[in-house]
TrEMBL record:
Pfam families: Peptidase_M16, Peptidase_M16_C, PqqF-like_C_4, PqqF_C_3. Residues 630-724 form the Coenzyme PQQ synthesis protein F-like C-terminal lobe domain. Its cofactor is Zn(2+). Residues 177-334 form the Peptidase M16 C-terminal domain. One of its GO terms (molecular function) is zinc ion binding. The keyword Metal-binding applies. Pathway: Cofactor biosynthesis; pyrroloquinoline quinone biosynthesis. This is Coenzyme PQQ synthesis protein F. One of its GO terms (biological process) is pyrroloquinoline quinone biosynthetic process. Keywords: Hydrolase, Metal-binding, Metalloprotease, PQQ biosynthesis, Protease, Zinc. The gene is pqqF.
Length: 779
C-alpha cells in the first residue's frame, strides 16, 4: 500500500506537507516552528521553552478543560511538544474521527495564546520543578557537560531551560520580549504543518486550509547564524570507562541530516566487520551510541559515546574509530546505499502516523542517498577526519544485506497450532501486522542471571529485526519471562524461529557477564520500571553465586511452563508461525491469573533521591473494567488540575487506567521536589475522596471512550496487547465489542460505587515510593 506525499504553500505563507498513508488507522499533525531557545533574547534564558508551556494553558475559544491536551487525552490519543535550539515542535495523534477537532485546537492555541500573569506565575513554578529534576538527573548533567564543549561563545554552552529566576514574568521587559517573540516567529512564514493519515490528499488539504488560516500571514525570518566552533579536531571527554568523542563540524553541505543518519546507521551496526563488532570481539566495548546533538545552518555537533570495560585501551579505541571512518570514506558505498534505501522504505511502511508527520515536518524523506546526500557525506567524513588523508589499516567490511528485509511469504505444510498457543481473531490479517506473545513461568533460582545471558544473545537479532520493521522485546517479571514479536506478518515467523534457537542455545560470548546497567536517575521512571514485579508480589531472594552454564539453562527450560497468543496473521503466515513454535522450549500449560490482596501495601524502592516520587496502583476486578476505564477518564482532568496546576507539586503528574501482567487498575503518579511522600498521598486521597461527587455519566463521554476500542481506530499493537492482557487475566476469547457495549451500559450508581471503593482501597492499594511509608494504615 504505497504512501502519497504532497507539499504546498498556502496564501498566508504556511508550508504544508500532506501524507496519504492507507495502512494507517490514526491521524497525526505536527507543526514545526523555525524558532527555538537560541532565537530568544539572551537576557531571558528559557523564554522559548516557557512559551511552549503557555500554549497548552487554554485560549479564549478553548479553555484548559477543552484545550488540545484534554481533548486528545479524552479521545485516547497522544500529544506533546519539544523546544530545541533552533526549532520548536507541537504534535498529536488521534483516531480519524477526532482529527479535525484536534487540528482546530492546535492551530488556535498557537495563534491565540493567553498571557495572563496568574497562569504565567503558576507555569513558571512547573518550569522550575522541571529544572530541578533535570539538574539532578545524571544523564542530563552529562548532556549539559557535552554541550559545554561547543565553547563559551556558542549558545550551546548557555543555560536554556529556564527557571524561577531567569523567567522574570513580572518584569515589563520580559513581557514585551515574550509577546515580541510570539509575534515575530509564530506566524505562517515560520511554520511547517504536516498532516498524515488514511484520508485522501484532497481531504487532508481541505483540513489544512480550513484551520491554518487562523495564522497571521508572514514570510520567513532569517535566524541569526551561530559563531563557528573553536576548532575542528575531535574533543575527548569522560573517563576510562565512559569515553565521549565530540565532533564540532562547520561548513557542512545541504543534505547533511540524511548523511548523518546514514553514518549513524552503519557506524552503530553490530554485525561482523564493523566497529562495534570489532570492539566487542576484543572485549573492550559494553555499549556504543552515535548521534547528532545539534544541527543548524551547515553546523553540527556529533557525539560518539562508548562505554568501555577496564581492559580497553582508550588510544586504541580512538584509533579504531578513526580508522573505520577512513574506511567508509574510501569504500564503494553503492551496495550499502541500496540496502539503506530498503531500510528507509521499511521505516516508511511501518511508521505510525505521528512518526510520519514529525519526519515530514523536517523535510527529510525516506529514501537512499542521492547525489546531494553523497556530497554531504563526503564533506562530513572529511570534517570528522579533520581533513587528514588516512589509509585504513584494519580489514573492515561493510555489513552484508539483511536477509529479513527481503523475506516474502512462502507456503509451508499445514501445521497445527501448538497446545499452548491461543489464536486471537481481534487483529484482522488485512492489517499486515502480526503479533505473537510467549510467556514462560519458571522455578529456577538462576532465572535472573540466565535471563541476562539470553538478553545479550538476542541483541543482534533484535537489531536486524528492527531494520525489517519487526520489534522483538524480551523481558523478565518476577518468575516469568516474556518474548513479544510484532510487525510485518511475513517476517515475524522467521524472527521467532531465530529467537527460539537463540533461547535454547545462546552464543558462547553471551555467557560473559556485562557491567550492571546504571539505574534510571529519574525516580518516577525507576518506580514505573519496577511496578510490574511488585504487582505480581515479588519477593527478593539472594542470587546464587555459582558459575552458570548451558546445563543450567537446559534444566530451567525442562521445568518451565509456557503459554502464548498470536493475532493478525494470514493463513500462510500462521502456518509458518505454528511450525516455528514447534520448537518452543518447556511444556505448554496454564498460568493462573494474578491476584492482589485487598490491603494497603507500601514498598520503599530505590533510588533514594532529593525529589519524592510515588506511584499508587488501585486494582480493579476484570469484570469492572468498563466502569474503571470511564472512571479513569473522569479522574484525569481533576487529578491533573489539582496536583499539577493548583498545588504545583511538580511537572511529573499523571493518572490513567493500566493493565499490568493481567491485572487491571488505576495508576496515579507524582514526582515532586517540594512535597513529602505523606503530603503527596494525602493530596491523592483528597482527590479520590472528592471524586464521587464530581462524576458525570453522560452519553457523549461514554461514546467517546467506547469509540477508542473500535479495532479500526486502535493501533495494531494496542489491539494485540488488549487481547494478551485479557488472556493473562483469564478471559476466554474476549471481544472489543463486548467492552464497548459494557462502557455504553455504565450507569452513575455503578461509577460512583467504584469511585468510593477506590478511595477506600476496598480492592487494595499498592504504593511504590522512593521513601518510607507515612504513619497510618499501611501494611
Amino acid at each position: 500500500m504505497p504512501c502519497a506525499l504532497h507539499q504546498l504553500t498556502l496564501d498566508n505563507g504556511l508550508q504544508v506537507s500532506l501524507r496519504h498513508a492507507p495502512q494507517l488507522k490514526r491521524c497525526a499533525a505536527a507543526v514545526r516552528v523555525q524558532a527555538g531557545s537560541h532565537d530568544a533574547p539572551r537576557a531571558w534564558p528559557g523564554l522559548a521553552h516557557f512559551l511552549e508551556h503557555l500554549f497548552f494553558l487554554g485560549t479564549q475559544r478553548f479553555t484548559l478543560e477543552d484545550g488540545l491536551m484534554r481533548y486528545v487525552q479524552h479521545h485516547g490519543g497522544q500529544v506533546n511538544a519539544s523546544t530545541r535550539e533552533r526549532t520548536t515542535e507541537f504534535f498529536f495523534e488521534v483516531p480519524q474521527a477526532a482529527f479535525a477537532g484536534g487540528l482546530e485546537r492546535l492551530c488556535d492555541m498557537l495563534a491565540h495564546p493567553q498571557f495572563g500573569l496568574e497562569r504565567q506565575l503558576r507555569e513558571r513554578e512547573v518550569i522550575h520543578a522541571e529544572f530541578i529534576a533535570w539538574s539532578r538527573n545524571t544523564q542530563m548533567q552529562r548532556q549539559f557537560a557535552l554541550l559545554q564543549a561547543a565553547g563559551r561563545e556558542h549558545p550551546l554552552s548557555a543555560f536554556q531551560a529556564g527557571n524561577r529566576y531567569s523567567l522574570q514574568v513580572q518584569s515589563p521587559a520580559f513581557q514585551a520580549a515574550l509577546r515580541d517573540f510570539h509575534q515575530r516567529f509564530y506566524q505562517a512564514g515560520q511554520f511547517t504543518l504536516s498532516l498524515s493519515g488514511p484520508q485522501s490528499l484532497a481531504q487532508l488539504e481541505a483540513l489544512a486550509r480550513r484551520f491554518a488560516r487562523v495564522f497571521s500571514a508572514g514570510t520567513t525570518v532569517q535566524q541569526a547564524l551561530p559563531p563557528s566552533f573553536n576548532g575542528q579536531a575531535p574533543l575527548l571527554m569522560g573517563d576510562k570507562r565512559q569515553l565521549d568523542v565530540l565532533y564540532p563540524c562547520d561548513n557542512l553541505h545541504p543534505g547533511v541530516e540524511q548523511a548523518i543518519d546514514f553514518l549513524a546507521t552503519w557506524l552503530s551496526d553490530t554485525r561482523p566487520g564493523g566497529l562495534s563488532a570489532t570492539l566487542h570481539e576484543r572485549g573492550w566495548l559494553e555499549h556504543f551510541e552515535f548521534s547528532s546533538l545539534y544541527s543548524f545552518a551547515g553546523q553540527a555537533l556529533l557525539h560518539a559515546g562508548l562505554k568501555l570495560n577496564d581492559a580497553a585501551s582508550v588510544d586504541q579505541v580512538l584509533a579504531l574509530l578513526s580508522d573505520w571512518l577512513a574506511f567508509l570514506r574510501s569504500a564503494d558505498l553503492s551496495d550499502i546505499n541500496q540496502e539503506y534505501g530498503r531500510l528507509q522504505h521499511c521505516r516508511e511502511q511501518t511508521a505510525s502516523a505521528l512518526e510520519l508527520a514529525r519526519r515530514d515536518s523536517t523535510g527529510q524523506h525516506f529514501k537512499a542517498l542521492d547525489e546531494q546526500g553523497f556530497a554531504a557525506l563526503e564533506r562530513l567524513l572529511d570534517t570528522l577526519l579533520d581533513g587528514q588523508a588516512q589509509t585504513p589499516l584494519e580489514p573492515w567490511r561493510l555489513p552484508a544485506a539483511n536477509p529479513l528485509l527481503k523475506i516474502t511469504p512462502v507456503s509451508v505444510p499445514a501445521t497445527a497450532a501448538p497446545d499452548g498457543l491461543t489464536l486471537s481473531p481481534l487483529l484482522p490479517p488485512t492489517r499486515q501486522h502480526g503479533v505473537v506473545y510467549l510467556r514462560w513461568q519458571l522455578t529456577s533460582a538462576l532465572r535472573e542471571r540466565l535471563w541476562q545471558v539470553l538478553d545479550r544473545a538476542l541483541q543482534p537479532l533484535r537489531e536486524q529485526a528492527a531494520q525489517a520493521g519487526v520489534h522483538l522485546h524480551w523481558s523478565a517479571c518476577d518468575t516469568y519471562w516474556q518474548l513479544r514479536c510484532a510487525g510485518n506478518g511475513a517476517v515475524v515467523p522467521t524472527v521467532i524461529d531465530h529467537a527460539l534457537a537463540i533461547l535454547r542455545l545462546p552464543a558462547s560470548q553471551s555467557w560473559t557477564p556485562a557491567a550492571a546497567e546504571q539505574p534510571d536517575s529519574m525516580p518516577i521512571r525507576a518506580l514505573l520500571r519496577q511496578l510490574p514485579e511488585h504487582v505480581l508480589g515479588r519477593v527478593d531472594e539472594p542470587l546464587p553465586a555459582c558459575t552458570i552454564s548451558q546445563s543450567n539453562l537446559d534444566a530451567l527450560w525442562e521445568y518451565s511452563t509456557w503459554q502464548g497468543l498470536s493475532s493478525g496473521f494470514g493463513f500462510t503466515e500462521q502456518q509458518a508461525l505454528n511450525q516455528a513454535l514447534g520448537k518452543v522450549p518447556g511444556r505448554a500449560g496454564k498460568q493462573l491469573p494474578p491476584r492482589i490482596e485487598a490491603l494497603r501495601r507500601w514498598q520503599t524502592l530505590p533510588p533514594p533521591a532529593s525529589e519524592h516520587a510515588l506511584l499508587l496502583f488501585c486494582p480493579v476486578p476484570i469484570e469492572h473494567q468498563a466502569a474503571a476505564r470511564l472512571l479513569a477518564q473522569q479522574l484525569q482532568g481533576p487529578f491533573y488540575q489539582r496536583l499539577r496546576v493548583e498545588l504545583n507539586l511538580g511537572y511529573a503528574v499523571f493518572s490513567a487506567f493500566r493493565q499490568i501482567e493481567g491485572c487491571n487498575g488505576l495508576l496515579l503518579g507524582v514526582q515532586s521536589p517540594s512535597a513529602s511522600h505523606a503530603e503527596i498521598i494525602g493530596h491523592i486521597q483528597a482527590v479520590l475522596d472528592a471524586l464521587p461527587a464530581t462524576l458525570s455519566c453522560n452519553t457523549a463521554d461514554k461514546q467517546a471512550l467506547a469509540a477508542q476500542f473500535d479495532e479500526q481506530a486502535m493501533a495494531n499493537n494496542d489491539v494485540a496487547e488488549w487481547a494478551w492482557q485479557a488472556h493473562l487475566a483469564g478471559q476466554q476469547q474476549p471481544l472489543l465489542s463486548d467492552l464497548q457495549a459494557a462502557i455504553l451500559a455504565v450507569e452513575m450508581p455503578q461509577l460512583q460505587r467504584l469511585a468510593r471503593q477506590t478511595s477506600q482501597a476496598e480492592q487494595g492499594w499498592l504504593c511504590l515510593a522512593n521513601g518510607p511509608a507515612p504513619t497510618g494504615n499501611w501494611h
